[in-house]
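Lecture 7 notes: from sequence to structure.

We start with a single chain of 428 residues. Read the sequence below before looking at the structure.
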Amino acid sequence: MPNLIRESYWKQGIEKPAGDPGDVPRATDIAIIGAGFTGLAAALHLARAGLSVTVFEARDIGHGCSSRSGGMCGPSFHKLGIAGMTRKYGAEKTWAILRESLVSLDYFYSFLEAEEIDCDLQRVGRFRGAATAKEYDALIAETALLSDKVGLKFHAVPREAQGAEIGTELYHGGVVYEQDAGINPYKLVRGLAARATRAGCRIFEDCPVHSIDGEGTRKTLRTARGDIHAKTVVLATNGYTGREFPFFRRRLIPINAGVVATEDLGFETIRAISPKLRMHGGTHRLVFWYRPTPDGRRMILGGRVMDAKQRPEAIASDLLSLARRVFPQLESARAEYCWHGNVAYTFDYAAHLGEVEGIHFAMGYCGSGITRSIYFARQLSRRILGEKSAETAHDDLDFPTLPLYSGTPWFVPLMLRWHAMLDKFAGH
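Now the structure, written as tokens:
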């Protein structure tokens, strides 16, 4: 695949956030591990409260999924669906979690407005296509229930009308989630880092934390650039949680997701694919999603990485093959950018936040973390500061693992191939 650029399209033409060039301080009130959405947003809140805040990032600011996602924003509803959640949690807890999903989305939009962060926010909604007629009926029923119970705004799109939403005959109709949006995630990273730095936070890049010693308010972080004493530690590493944090690593399933940006296809071609420039996805078991770039001239295509060696050429080829099943307009389209990174799933398909062994954490967003990470960061900060209204519907959820699981998800390739086979035989 000639001239394939092996980096995120989102970073093009954007000045990189600057890390702190100085020495790591000997002490800090708050030490945050991970400079993605969660870590940076928490740093901003805590620094503005007057605390000294130091952030440690093993690579560059926003290196992980925060700059590698597709930039699709929604309420991040639970992967189990209403029926699965009700069996697991009961009706009251189920609706509390789902209601909070919309609260997190509303907070995300108000946060961007209040902070005046320009991240190419486009509140265009998302079309979700049904792979079969049976799935269309189920999709309408579940979405209508969400509308009735928690106020989700949507409208149904029968198959005969879907041409106004998407340029494909693959789906059997679908729904439009009217409150969804798209952003440039790297611009959000940059905006958060700039505001946290102005608030007094110090962000150290290329500075992994190797271990944490001590208890209570007397913790010592052993970093690549020296030791630092911290009163409070926040872990915000999500899909990049290392072996130095075994409790958390055993509860996260890192799944590699790939993304490509096509060459410039022109505005007319993109309009033929996505007439309203919405976000898009389907009911496939094998996750695959797509969206136009903010300028409306390229398509961004994303899904799980099937290539065990994570080779960009193979990832791009796989994603383009999937895309061409949906959009014949892409038959001759070329991928210009390809990148990949880890999303963090959990064994109960729920995001988690709380405090374990004196470490505060928020993680496990299951591939839908943009809005929830910003919301969880605020709630976690409120809890650390002892402020009111710090509770969430996730507070009392168990954070499960499996016996003998150590954080290496050997079973994921088998699971992905199984889902691909089910999609094939179901006519997806």
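The mean pLDDT is 94. Keep this in mind for problem set 3.
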